[in-house]
Inverse folding.
């Protein structure tokens, strides 16, 4: 037994040393200064600290820090400081060593990064929902001190996602949901396109394994056809580029599995109707760095002579890089097969930046070592401003931050010609707040390209915007609907919150003065009576309305307060509480829950535990048997079943991960569920008759409601019907699509 243990230990040691040597060789092949000694020292220190500890997969724990260090070096392009921090990133949290020990052995900078990583350990969110916003704030504050913290954290998350298979299903949903909600957008914002795509695909793979496998198989089945299209499309392009005397390579870029699925969901189309699976990437070495931009446009001109370009789809990210540093020229060309194909034109430097993000800038800066500060600093500044006055609710806070993470950008101009970068769909109000809080809060409208527009007007790339202000203007509650940027929303919310507080305090003073003047003692019943009189929902709303002069206290209020007749008071009590609207609303969901509450053994199983619990189907997404679902434990130990892609479930996974359960359907087709089917097609005699015949007679499905209308020869409609499971829906949609006039059939949510 001892010999077996020894031989196992030797084999493990050999595996660990090989993994470290492989990582070190990758570092030595990079352009960074070769600080091998400190990296080796960090490795041996971490190896000793984690000795004897195993991961859930059974492999030695030290393999994880080595893998993270390799990602940091090979895939993000960072140097020795980051590699050391990656090797040491779990030491302080998982062992008895302290930050002081790290500082004494490895210096202040590495210790600071390790401390930043330790603060945000265990994922962005802890087990308690209340810690969620705090941990996320820690992440962003640490990130604003040293961007390498978040880059290493993303590498850490990427390795965790690559090894997620050894986790429980419920943990997989939590981690995958958190990754898709926060880490993928962060990677995107930092220009880590390759990592962003992999994080999305891995999250999707664990959340929707069947859909993932289906799309993967269809991509493999159609790969030969795509390769043929690629070869035929690029052959004349190669001839033109050879004439230009450029060194280049042309790559096929296939749309990611997650992106394909996302498009299928949003457009309600099958895989076969996704026409932009293939894109072409031209990566060239410029004649000189000064000629880089000109070479991009020369390539565009030469290939536009071969294929017709789409007039509205030229994207010039070369002259105006994205906020994450991305540069490329995108043009969409009509291929000989009648399909549009996007071509991305990049220099080698631009390609490095696109794949490695801000880290790649360091390779191209003279002297290296310091990151590109332009757009990244602006973004971090916005985050700092939001952190100064965060939303009171954790989910709102995250959503506010996330608004700016995944946004596509537009470029607008000030009257003096200065360029401002804003997220797509930004409004004139967003632009006003981007200039200054005072300009935003006093904004009354704008002139866009010299034409007067309201503050809610959506801006387009290239617009010239002049903001109009008035000293008498105040921030209005409806402005929250007009704002899309995190900065504008947080400022509007903050101003409204302060105004409410001030108005409430003023209202309390005015009401107290009014009562004192009339010699009326303060009594809780007074607030109830005044709320009833002025249709205020509660005391706070009443005081705010008095404070902002919406309610002016007068004779009617005096009469009501002084009226203390018992009969009238009883009548009032009877009206307010005996027939209280909230009570009737309370009973209604209870009845609904009873209808939806089913025996868990009959319908659904929790795969993580054997306890029998009651559960209800979520009203937000209406899951049916066959849908990929998860369970969320709500109040009273009741499990609420959501579809995995439901937006509500997405938030629950990121904030209440410890309450998420894996589930599996087990209905035996003994129950029916309501679903909605959307139809669209060309109007014709007998179409409706064929639809009802297929549903009711051929498939024996019960129609609950049918609503179809026609306009200009096109019909569209909605059918609600009762089915047993997802398979019924698939068979139904397949059969309806066989009707010649029907062009679109899809299940929709209500």
């Amino acid at each position: 037994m001892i010999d077996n243990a020894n031989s196992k230990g030797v084999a493990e040691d050999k595996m660990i040393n090989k993994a470290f040597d492989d990582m070190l060789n990758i570092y030595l092949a990079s352009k960074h200064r070769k600080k091998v000694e400190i990296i080796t020292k960090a490795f041996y220190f971490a190896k000793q600290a984690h000795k004897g500890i195993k991961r859930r997969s059974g492999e030695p724990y030290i393999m994880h820090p080595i893998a993270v260090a390799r990602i940091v070096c090979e895939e993000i392009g960072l140097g020795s400081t980051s590699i050391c921090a990656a090797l040491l990133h779990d030491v302080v949290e998982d062992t008895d060593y302290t930050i002081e020990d790290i500082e004494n052995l490895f210096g202040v900078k590495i210790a600071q990064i390790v401390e930043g990583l330790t603060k945000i350990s265990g994922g962005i969110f802890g087990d308690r929902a209340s810690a969620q916003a705090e941990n996320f704030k820690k992440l962003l504050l640490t990130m604003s001190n040293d961007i390498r913290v978040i880059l290493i954290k993303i590498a850490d998350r990427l390795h965790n996602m690559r090894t997620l298979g050894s986790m429980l299903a419920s943990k997989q949903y939590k981690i995958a949901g958190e990754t898709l909600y926060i880490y993928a957008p962060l990677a995107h914002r930092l220009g880590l396109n390759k990592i962003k795509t992999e994080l999305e695909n891995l999250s999707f793979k664990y959340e929707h394994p069947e859909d993932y496998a289906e799309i993967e198989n269809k991509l493999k089945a159609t790969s030969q056809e795509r390769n043929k299209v690629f070869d035929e499309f690029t052959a004349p392009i190669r001839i033109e580029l050879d004439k230009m005397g450029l060194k280049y390579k042309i790559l096929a870029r296939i749309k990611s599995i997650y992106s394909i699925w996302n498009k299928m969901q949003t457009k309600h189309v099958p895989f076969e109707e996704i026409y932009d699976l293939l894109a072409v990437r031209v990566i060239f070495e410029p004649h000189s760095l000064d000629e880089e931009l000109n070479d991009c446009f020369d390539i565009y001109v030469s290939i536009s002579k071969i294929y017709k370009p789409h007039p509205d789809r030229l994207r010039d990210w070369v002259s105006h890089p994205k906020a994450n540093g991305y540069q490329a020229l995108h043009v969409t060309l009509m291929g000989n097969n009648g399909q549009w194909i996007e071509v991305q034109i990049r220099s080698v430097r631009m390609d490095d930046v696109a794949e490695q993000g801000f880290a790649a800038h360091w390779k191209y800066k003279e002297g290296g070592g310091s990151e590109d500060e332009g757009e990244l600093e602006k973004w971090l500044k916005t985050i700092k401003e939001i952190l100064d006055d965060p939303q009171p609710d954790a989910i709102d806070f995250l959503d506010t931050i996330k608004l700016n993470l995944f946004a596509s950008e537009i470029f607008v101009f000030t009257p003096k010609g200065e360029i401002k970068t804003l997220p797509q769909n930004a409004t004139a109000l967003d632009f006003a707040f981007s200039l200054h809080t005072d300009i935003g809060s006093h904004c009354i409208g704008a002139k866009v390209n010299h034409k007067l527009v309201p503050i809610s007007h959506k801006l387009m790339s290239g617009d010239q915007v002049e903001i109009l202000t008035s000293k008498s203007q105040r921030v209005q509650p409806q402005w929250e609907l007009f704002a899309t940027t995190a900065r504008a929303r947080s400022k509007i919310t903050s101003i409204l919150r302060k105004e409410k507080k001030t108005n409430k305090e003023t209202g309390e003073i005015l009401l107290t003065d009014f009562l004192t003047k009339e010699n009326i003692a303060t009594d809780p019943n007074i607030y109830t009576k005044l709320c009833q009189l002025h249709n205020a929902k509660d005391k706070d709303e009443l005081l705010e309305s008095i404070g902002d002069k919406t309610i002016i206290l007068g004779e009617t209020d005096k009469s009501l307060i002084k009226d203390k007749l018992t009969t009238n008071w009883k009548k009032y009590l009877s009206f307010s509480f005996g027939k209280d609207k909230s009570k009737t609303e309370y009973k209604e969901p209870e009845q609904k829950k009873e209808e939806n509450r089913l025996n868990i053994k009959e319908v659904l199983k929790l795969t993580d535990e054997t306890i029998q619990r009651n559960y209800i189907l979520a009203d937000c997404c209406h899951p049916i048997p066959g849908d990929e679902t998860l369970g969320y434990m709500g109040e009273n130990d009741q499990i609420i079943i959501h579809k995995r892609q439901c937006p509500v479930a997405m938030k629950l996974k990121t904030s209440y991960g410890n309450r998420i359960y894996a589930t599996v359907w087990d209905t035996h087709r003994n129950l029916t569920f309501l679903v909605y089917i959307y139809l669209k097609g060309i109007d014709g005699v007998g179409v409706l008759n064929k639809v009802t015949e297929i549903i009711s007679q051929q498939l024996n499905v019960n129609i609950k409601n049918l609503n179809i209308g026609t306009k200009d020869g096109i019909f569209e409609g909605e059918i609600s019907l009762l089915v047993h499971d997802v398979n019924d829906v698939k068979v139904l949609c397949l059969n309806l699509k066989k009707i010649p006039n029907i062009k679109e059939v899809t299940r929709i949510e209500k």
The longest helix spans residues 486-517. The first strand starts at residue 247 and ends at 254. The chain has six domains: 2-207, 216-364, 375-493, 494-579, 584-665, 673-748. Residues 219 and 345 are 25 Å apart (CA to CA).
